[in-house]
Design a protein that fits this description.
The structure holds 2 protein chains of 2 kinds. Chain A is of the alpha/beta class. Chain A has 5 helices and 4 strands, in the order βαβαβαβαα. Chain A has one domain: Phosphotransferase system, mannose-type IIA component (Rossmann fold). Chain A has helices at 16-30, 51-61, 74-85, 101-113, 118-127, and strands at residues 8-13, 36-40, 67-71, 94-96. Chain A has a 4-stranded parallel beta sheet with strand order 2-1-3-4, with helices on both faces. Chain B has a single domain, classed as HPr-like (Histidine-containing Protein, Chain: A, 2-Layer Sandwich), CATH 3.30.1340.10. In chain B, strands 1-4-2-3 form a 4-stranded antiparallel beta sheet. Classes of the chains: A alpha/beta, B alpha+beta. At the A-B interface, helix 1 and helix 4 of A face helix 1 and helix 2 of B.
Chain lengths: 134, 90
């Protein structure tokens, strides 16, 4: 299992700093064996989301086992959905996780590092909705 | 026949995010179900958020239990990670 390609993770945030920081944290917790690509902010560096950044991140994250996208807030999902709805040369499979951003990214990345397939990585991210921290 | 096995360790440091991640990645390599118990709280060792949610701290007594065909190996691997990672205080 450990020799197989890992599922990649893409972080879509309105803030480049938030996406970069969450990616750094997830990489530390998961041991650095998974591609975690941040796609934060607009193309000109403002707060917002960028389809071009997400597309580039998807290509970088794809190692052959698929990619799970974790959006920070609901409106990032609109950018992701619009991109996935267009014809184009995107990796497959791609799943979008309905999960809290930090917990979802950490849970998904650790699951991917453990060799989980894309459905299990998606499930790990979405189970983060129920995780208690106290 | 599925085996069950458990072993306890007294933590030499707090169980922070990085060791929790290393532990969950390691637990995923075994087919056995692996759980961690501290006091009245238990977590699935394969769930990094569950492990972090235990809030296990230095000096606490933690029990690692596994059930499945590779239970013994799984417990040994997790105990080794706990012994090493909590000592570094990562």
């Amino acid at each position: 299992m450990s020799l197989d390609a890992r599922v990649g993770i893409v972080l879509v945030s309105h803030s480049a700093a938030l996406a970069d920081g969450a990616a750094e944290l997830a990489a530390q917790v998961s041991g650095g064996t998974v591609a975690i690509i941040p796609a934060g902010g607009t193309d000109d560096g403002r707060l917002g989301t960028s389809a071009a950044k997400v597309e580039q991140a998807l290509k970088l994250a794809d190692g052959g086992a698929g990619v799970v996208i974790v959006p920070d807030l609901g409106s990032a999902v609109l950018t992701v959905r619009a991109l996935l709805g267009e014809p184009g040369d995107l990796p497959t499979p791609v799943e979008v996780a309905d999960a809290p951003f930090v917990e979802g990214v950490v849970a998904a990345t650790v699951a991917a590092a453990g060799g989980a397939n894309i459905k299990a990585v998606l499930a790990a991210a979405e189970e983060a909705r129920h995780a208690r921290k106290l | 026949m599925p085996a069950s096995y458990e072993e306890a360790i007294t933590l030499a440091g707090d169980l922070h995010a990085r060791p929790a991640g290393a532990l969950a990645v390691a637990a995923a390599q075994f087919s056995s179900a692996v759980s961690l118990t501290v006091g009245a709280s238990s977590a699935d060792a394969k769930s990094v958020l569950g492990v972090m949610g235990l809030g296990a701290t230095c000096g606490q007594h933690l029990t690692v239990a596994a059930e499945g065909p590779d239970a013994h190996e799984a417990v040994a691997a997790i105990i080794a990670i706990l012994a090493e990672a909590t000592r570094v205080g990562a």
